[in-house]
Amino acid sequence: MQSTQVIGIRKYIVYFLFIFLSGLLSAVDYFSNKTLSNFIPEQVNFISNFQIPDRLLQNEFSSLSSSRADLVAENIRLKEELSNLRVLYVENQELQDNIESYDLLIKNISDFELTYYSTSLILKNSTDEYLILGGRDYNFEPGDLVINETGYVVGYLGEVFNDYSILESFNSTNFNFRALDENNNIFEVNSNGKELIFSSLESTLNSKVGMLYSDITFGHINKFPLFDLESYEQTKLNNKLTVTVPIDEMLTFQSKLFIPKSK
Amino acid sequence: MKVIRLISISTFLFMLCLFENYLNTFISFDFGVYVFLISLIYIGTELFNQNLVIPIFLTGILYDSFFSTYYLGLYTSIFLVLVVLSNFVVSRYSRSNVIYITTISLCLLIYKIPIILEFDLDYWLTGYFTSIIVNSFIFVTLKRALRKNV
Q1: What is the pLDDT of residues B48-96, one digit of tens each?
Q2: What's the sign of the alpha-carbon dihedral B127, B132, B137, B139?
Q3: Which residues of B touch A130 (CB under 8 A)?
């Protein structure tokens, strides 16, 4: 009976060794300031390698049957033309969407000295962080602001790799942001996943808080609106203000995002 | 031959992991469909084998490198723990649907541990229970389908 139990535990030894190895890797990564975990993404252009080749999109394989009768050849040529037109249609739609979102952005921003790189979501990981297109290839850096087409801040870049970045959005576990109100009071913004918690860092707030903005004093590239707190209940404790705002809008594949960078 | 087998299993598992993330990005429900988690539990309960430790380890390393902001090795150890735990529960107790659902509940709790530790109960609890129902259903259906085919 006892020996059966020993055999039962023995089958896990290799697994325990590898769990120990993983723990060791985590420890090394922690002490090396994430050099280890950034090593592979720095060597590989992961996202670019996943793009569907144009060849497949254009269905060039159909040209193999060129030796058949004229009618079949004509049919194939028309099919190719049709698939080319479909590719052009998709491209045209994407460009039109981009133009529309840029138009909307232009109406909502004031600073035209910056370059606004358009980006979009790739996927959401297990900890509800979003992977977005563009990384070091566009000179993105951790901490860069990410805004939507209305010019509002939707998050910042947590980590940047060769061709993609990880966005710390409002419902991300690591979201931590500092912003200023119109009277230059500093607010710290944290998230509990369903709500954003705005807490003032100073104790001299007399009037009601309105719009919060990003600011260059916190390393942000410029002043962008973050949230209008005027319509939300504002609680005062020990002269410090706290406002809790539910997170209503989730990012989707249709969300148009922009990363402002200096020219 | 052995190396090719290891590489193909690792690639397959990583693709499943990628598919799971894509799927959960597309669906905007309160619950998640965790196909990769289900496959890990399936490995633990049905296909447990010491030769699978390297593919699971490699998948974890790739996931940690590309998709996670946590330290390298965190998700790797989570994946390995899930396989060990699911195998331990199933070999210790009888193979019934109740045990499978309990295993899925425990594994999902470990799988979502970074979110559970960071966020309040009301953020993840509803989604957690819904995910248990959905994923248990998928797991049991998958098990039955595979049993019939064999």
Answers
A1: 988 899 999 999 999 988 888 888 899 999 999 999 999 999 988 888 8
A2: positive
A3: 25
Bridge partners of residue A236, in order along the sequence? A241
DSSP output for B98-120: HHHHHHHHHHHHHHTHHHHHHS-
CB contact under 8 A, B21 and A250: no
| Residues of chain B contacting A253 with CB distance shorter than 8 Å | 25-26
Residues of chain A with pLDDT under 50: 1-3, 52, 56-66
Residues 6 or more apart in contact with residue A72 via CB below 8 angstroms = A65
Q: What would the pLDDT profile of B5-57 be if each residue is shown by its tens digit?
A: 889 999 999 999 989 988 888 777 778 899 999 999 999 998 898 889 999 99
Distance CA A247, CA A124 (A): 17
Could you give the domains of chain A? 114-262 (2.40.10.340)
ipTM (interface predicted TM)? 0.88
Joined together, the tokens standing for residue A249 give 């809008």
| B19 touching chain A per CB within 8 A | no
At A81 the pLDDT is: 81
